[in-house]
Amino acid sequence: MEAPKTIKKRKLIDKSIPNVVLQNPEFAEDSQMYTSLLEMERKLDWTMTRKKVEIQDALMRNPTTTRTLRLFLSHTVSGQVWQNSGVASDKVNFETGEGIPAWELKVEGRMLEPPNQRSRDKAPQRKFSTVVKRLIVELGRDTTLYPEGNIVEWPRAPGAHNPALDGFTVRRKGDTATRIRIILYLNHSPPQYKVVPELANVIGIKEDSRVNVIQALWAYIKSAGLQDKVDRRIIRMDDRLKPLFGNEVMFAKLPEMVNRYLAAADPIVLHYTINPAMPPPERPTAWDVEVKIDDVALRGRMQVVINPSKESLTAMQRLDEEIALHAQSLHNAHLKRTFLHSFAKDPAHFVQTWLESQSRDLENILGSGPTEGMSLRQEELRRSEFFHLPWVQEAVAIHESLKLAERAAT
């Protein structure tokens, strides 16, 4: 035996109230306030839907922010003469390097927290190596005296196989002063490019992402009215852009043309000097540089707007159902009031009309009576909706049962 199907409860969605209630002078003020609230709700729903679409579009482009990266340069020394009370160490181990004068350079970095950041928006601190694309350390030493190599390079490997490090260390033997140049290529997101001076002087941007450069050029084209009046796909260049793009360019070719005037962004170059004959500084030397990264906090807040919690959706749905239930109660109260008001105004006429209506409905259902079911009006029979009323199925069932009873009797 199959289990009976559960009947789904029909949810009330109509939140409007009867026009008679709206037009009643006694409820005019309250009705106007309720109508204004419904209109405000519709506008708010439309605005929120539009904003959600805009946020989804923004998420496709990965929101970015500019953060400050603080670089630290420091060094330590070992085995130096001044560390051995002015006497060269007599315990030298060439295999382990113990006792040999040497120095160690440290290149470290730390991302600074933005000011006035909320605690719930704080993201895990990024490691220094995750914002470095390439690091080169050049040592100004005589290669004949120090054959270890004067160039140390750390290239970022493609993919997610790079270790997350707080810094890099370079160790070399020696007791002479050394000038060091650190060349740092940052891993911006999105990648940054240097704009050639000819185009940079027109759009006013020297370095930015490819998308922002194209948008700046498009803004200049629109402000100068360079689009063809007839065919909007054609861009007719002015005197400042003709040397770069020619007389005219198709709109679809514009990004490709811009790529020709973009170059790799200039690296950050830092200079540092190590003098092993003197004690290292107590504090490291620091520089602040700007780096563009993905805005994880903003992305999280945008995701919350697009995907609200289940608790919020459940609470809103419950409130909507309560409003619809109250609106339905007003409808029922209005019908009851109309019924009682008609009865109180003329009880005899009301009862007579009600009895005639009930008699007519019963006659229509049974198909018999004083008029033998002919009390139906012709205009009702012409309408298909009449045969879909709730009582029609019951009337057909009664009619067929009467016919079966007649056949059984004969």
From TrEMBL:
Q: State the organism's lineage.
A: Eukaryota, Fungi, Dikarya, Basidiomycota, Agaricomycotina
Matching entries from Gene3D superfamilies are given as:
SWIB/MDM2 domain
Q: Which PROSITE patterns match?
A: SWIB_MDM2
Q: What is this protein called?
A: SWI/SNF complex 60 kDa subunit
Against Pfam families, the record matches this protein to:
SWIB
Domain (DM2) spans 188-264
Its domain of life? Answer: Eukaryota
Known InterPro entries for this protein? Answer: SWIB_domain, SWIB_MDM2_dom_sf, SWIB_MDM2_domain
